[in-house]
Protein 1
Amino acid sequence: MAETRTAGSRSRSRLDTPKETRRTLVRRPAIKADALGVFAEEFARFMGTARFLTYMTLFVLVWVSWNVLAPADARWDAYPFIFLTLILSLQASYAAPLILLAQNRQETRDKVVAEQDRQANARAHADMEFLAREVASLRMAVGEVATRDFLRSELRSLLSDLDERARGEDEDGQLI
């Protein structure tokens, strides 16, 4: 039961009631929990393409060409290309964790798919064992059932016995 204290103080609540959340002055932007992961996967996919390699090669070639061939006052990065090195290092420092994040997400998906495959294989194996038992029981049941040829031979034998009796002969061919 909720008890209230003096005016202006917080109310005391039960243990099964969640506490109030603290209010902050700065409101955080609403970001989907999976947004960074999706971005990482798209980024990793793009980095693994020939288009990305072409763009990076063109970027570096233009950068180096401009800073070597342009007039001295128009160059922004002299020969050791320190600024280009900094940009490429910064790009690599962000690319590596994003690629690892994408790989981790793919690994998680692969585990789920592998578990589903394992369950499907177990069900298929159980179904095959059931069908094998059913086929074995059918074979045993068919073994006990009279076949058409067996029935024909028995009927012929009975017919010949009836013919003999109708003629009045016994098994040895003597008249009764």
Protein 2
Amino acid sequence: MMQERGVGVDPSTLFRRIQRYAPGIEKRVRPYQRSRSGSWRVDETYVRVGGKWKYLFRAVDKHGLLIDFMLADRRNTRAAYRFLRKALKTRNNCPRSSITTDKLASYPKTIRRLQKEGLLSKDVEHCTSKYLNNIIEADHGALKRVIRSTRGFQRMAAASATIKGFEVMRMIRRGHCILLRPGVTGEIRLVNQLFGRSA
């Protein structure tokens, strides 16, 4: 975005700014997000942090609109439960007709537990179709190209904050948020609005 405006900024400065402001932007942008479909695609991908592989859980709707994401140390039932619970709380006004996952054994257990707890409707269908998950697999690839340019993360906190910044800016750029005007002008106005600044 800075290059588009002809402003030269050192990458380390941008990296520090992203880590500082991204968590705040992520919370403030939620009311401006377009409504999501009730058909979710859930999957996880690998991210290197401190020389070790960590797991980035992500969910999108059937149209590719981001629902939620979470970086975790492990890819187990506890992490899957934490992620889906977080996603459901973030999107509590969204109808949920189906959740499509890969064949990871953690998901059926997690979905049954959430249904037992009343956080997820018993009508929600759990699918394990690789074909239906192609949309999130392609989205992982696009996000990982952005992550690759950072040359890696050293700490989980920095990785989590930076990925939040990437996800939020990708949402805004791809039209997943309601903009008063289309294009770059609308994006600038939305970011200014998020921080209570006049455009």
Protein 3
Amino acid sequence: MASPPVPPVPTDSIVALLQALVRTPSRAGADATEPVLGCMEDWFRRRGLACRRLQGADGQPLGLYAEIAGARPGGPWTVLDATLDTAGFGDAASWTRSPTDPGIEDGWLHGRGSADSKGGAALFAHLLAEFGAAPEGFAGRLGLLLDLDEHSGRFGGARAFFDPPPGDGPAPRPDGVLIGYPGMDRIVTGGRGFLRARLVVHGIAAHAGASRRRGLNAITRATALARALEAAPLPPTDPAFGLAPQLTLTGIQAGDGGYTQVPDRCELRIDLRLTPGFDDAQARALVQATVERQDAAHAGAAATAIEWFGGWPAYRVPDTHPMVAALREAGRAELGIELPTGVAGPSNIGNYLHGLGVPALCGFGLRGERIHAADERIALDSIGPVYRIYRAALNLLQRG
């Protein structure tokens, strides 16, 4: 029996939805979430697809979830994931056109969020609709999670879905999550973790003009500590992971704005990027040891206080995982190449999901440029290949 014809990629419809989403500003912490949420709800409603809002304890909408089920038995539960909130606009004068003008020029669709990640949301929504129109063709469950609170760093939509309030039923644990972050040159199978700390370095106050009692300048102590931290030896790149750990000084604050007092307090903020060979415990130990060595040189002042802000561990999904294998097979058929795998430097929602025991691929999507910068845009000619690769990969995963 001949196989049923493969439907064409609904490129025009994907572009139309993406343009509607870009026209609706949804900057994290700046814009109301209701308009972009309503835009997506209307799209689902017109296609007869049920969806439900994900809300915070205060009733604030944080995300949207839709799901379809295949008619055949067996098959995994796979969730597609993209974000509907965006980074800020920055200096609007630095944009060639308005950040909410999804104009098309020379094969590029412009606008804030076009690449990260409203393009992924529009593409995934159409995949869900296509599979939902032919449930007899797949097994298992296919969901779409759209987060409205990702760029804040809180991942509120994902947390509302994966960690529902007590009494709302068991916490969902799908077999895998495919995140539509932009970039079609590789499959991102993991990310570095992170740990953060605030260090309060103490000095001894004095008058800035005094000749005899000069005190102990907390800024001088803090800058010496900062140099020592930056010089602290970190493990090299782990070949099995692909990236080295990092320690970055991200902030310094001292003084009360005046000129006449030697400051007795200075804060440093540090960001540590973790790998399997440099985990949370090792990072804390390195910072603690460096602080203690510096404090020993200034016994007259109070010890430096360290306030830790816990993060997420590094992770990497094995290349043998079914999601990776399916995307690679689909990529070979579509592009004629073996898509490489790798890990991302920044942490992302995949790290959070890894901590829940849910494997997640955190990057394969539309080809984008200038993400989080002025004139963000996506290449229209990437829609067809990326859509077909995801369609083929889902057919492989959901065949039962």
Protein 4
Amino acid sequence: MYFIYRKYGNTIEITEIEKEPPQGRVFAPRKRRDVFEARRPDNTRRTKKLCMWRVSSALEEYGCPLLVTLTFNGDASDAFYASDSLRNFQVRLRDKYPQAQSIFIPELSPRGRIHFHGLLFNVPLSLGDTREGERLISHGDERKTRILAKLWGEGFVDAVKTDGSPKLAHYISKYITKGADHVIFNGMRRLMRISHGFPQQIEIKGEFAEYLAHRYANKKPIKEWEGDNIFLGKVIRKTYLQKEP
């Protein structure tokens, strides 16, 4: 059996595989994908998982982020332009707040306009509004100073304080699935744009992962999945929540 130990946030995921995966991969020349072709479902699922892992890790490391939405004033139907605008915003954000980290996912409005949903870490939470459900409790400094809107430079920025809940990882990753259905986003190389240095999940494979798996053998998982893979054989994945110290 082969083991993979993965930790993101306060979640521990242990995967047990019947056959050890091959250590090397042979890459064949890739056929250029038609811009009108839909994204592969397996790639979408992988991106969504990666989004959850990395956001969970960032929440554990940095704490509460701002939940922001970036919208365009003018034409918002050009994915190439939208992607470049977002990249420029992330560069300006890092210039303003050197420790800032960010993650953004695009969404298409019913009117066909592109906008971005994202999380900003290591920026002043005072910029964001305070909300309780749909009810606005107090306005944030962004409404007066427009600091983020000036850095964005393309339109309006809505910023809301968060409590750092793990649910944010699920909330932001759902836009991955929604975005994969729109071929307009094929103009973007990735549906998920993460700033340089954004925290990653801890991943351990092999013998040490097996040792760690045995430490959880007597604990009850919060989730368990079992399936078969034509290349790897039987696959068992168990998920645990790490207790707070």
